């Protein structure tokens, strides 16, 4: 048992470290250290330009999308090499934010289902950051119940074989920056819900596509609503067979859950620092026994996640597949972030309500409080993740379903007309 | 990076698991709970024959000379089986004190007997309620005679030898007491977990020899308690896993409203949360096992981390195991209460949860904040 590299890993790490040292945008380092969830922290320049520049530098030297095959812009690296690169990339990894969905989810789906010509055309510019992708899955009428989606794709009646898309998607990260979108649609409402879906990809500048930012509960706008007003897509931009969309979407979602330890800021070191500085009745807050209890529970959850990640990395290092332990990551991190933020405000007393530049640590904890509800919903809600752990890890039976065998058009919906 | 046990270590764990499956089904701790015997002597002898007791004791003192990683995995299996044997008192505590501070003669005298199971050892330090502090130790050692009283001494009623923390001329001092000698009184205590035994020991001028230097008593106690806490955290992780399995199996089997209760989200999500806490605790224990086996500087932080995490996980899994079983879980006949008893007894042994939470934060404040962050 050790935390050491194998000799090959050490050689690879040294190579990565030397390259990062020589090429990373060090002028941004101080700003990136302030990165928090959903923000790279960059203010001195356009954050997207900074992200694209670093991705391009990496791609030109063969350090983009390490685990992809070389012909698609990757390096054909092993999983452990990908982890090592991420560790050495350190704070500069926060610049990858705009590419996470494309590289982690859309790319692997295209790789698994598109024809060779499309793969050679689409994947290299995705890897190098020249083109950004978004994932058009969730809809106003259904998020967790993805297969209940209603965006319609019908064949054009001009004999071209093209498809006409109408409907809308919601919670689409980065749609305003994207050149391409991965789109799941309903092509047949007369069969059960999972069987009538079809997957496409399309240019986001296609006529009839309209992107509108969503003003979130915390006042920011990281997500969008995307409307499709009779958008035309050629049939060769279909992924998988007509009616095979559910199967294709599972490729995307499985890749979502394979990503390991993103190094997302959890707020614990900042809270700990605050408890050393803040006072309760004239003594450091950290000396208060209630504070210690709370801090200790945050600390062990944080370290439990850290070492769970390291166990997965150990498995990769030995060429094994990590166990199901990693499925707990987002469930724990999301709830932890929200509780931690509430506790940090509690420590500030009545002044905790103030959220301005003079708030402790520039209002970091108030920001976390207001952002954290989303972390418990996006990318699989707490409830969906508990179902996954219960059913796939512990082997419990699925819930009894009333919607799996009836035609989609006959499924009752909440206050909306039937398809 | 290799945060994992070796194949040999896993094979040893598997061997111990199979041995305990055969020799220590839940009827064994239940017999101790319901009977007059303080522990299962045949099972203890069997573990000794298997080499389990001496796994981390050097061969020169009758052990197997393996290490603490092996002992961690054995502890996990003992916890999983809620084995009614004095391994923690005799091996995690008494033997560790001897290895760390014993003279050559003391090691020769006791370690081979502890490794073979011929003698049982323990550690006596608690005198009252609340967190044990330097100034809460009143027992005193003078001219080789020990006077005072110690409470909740694990296996104190069956142990042959005890390491005792006492006041002496040069500060706190550990001493070794042969419990069969004159001036030693023992009284078995009634507890929430009679599958293990605890006693009140009184010393009235009992013969005691110093263990380690005068003034080193508190420091040595801290060190050994940290090491034992890691091993006990492994017992807790083993117990948590078993309680989760019991609950899962019952949720698959039990039908209500025409379907297995495990298909209801109210039950399923409870089980998922049990899996989460058991997994976090296990991963923290891996970190602590690494620190223990390498004598890492982070050991005090790692021990407190593992301990807080594992205590919380075992209590969480044991109480929800009863909840998943419903009314049947509250019957004497079902085994759920055996795990509930053990979880709540282990949560207090070596220091309560709030004590360890406080220790963790004290240690992190002292400069190890990065270790757990």
What labels would you give this structure?
heterodimer; A: alpha+beta; four-stranded mixed sheet; four-stranded antiparallel sheet; globular; B: 373 residues; alpha+beta; two-stranded antiparallel sheet
What structural category arises from helix and sheet content of chain B? alpha+beta
Major sheet attributes of chain B: 7 strands, mixed
Calculate the terminal CA-CA distance of chain B, rounded to whole Å.
19 Å
Based on CA inertia axes, which overall geometry of chain B fits? globular
Shape of chain A: globular
Please count the beta strands of chain A (DSSP E, at least 2 residues each): 10
- Could you tell me the radius of gyration of chain A in angstroms? 23 Å
Order of helices and strands of chain A: HHHHHHEEEEEEEEHHEEHHHH
Largest sheet properties of chain A: 4 strands, mixed
Low-confidence stretches of chain B: 368-373
Radius of gyration of chain B: 20 Å
Average pLDDT of chain A, to the nearest integer? 91
Determine the number of helices of chain B (DSSP H or I, runs of at least 4 residues). Answer: 11
Strand percent estimate of chain B: 15-25%
Oligomeric form: heterodimer
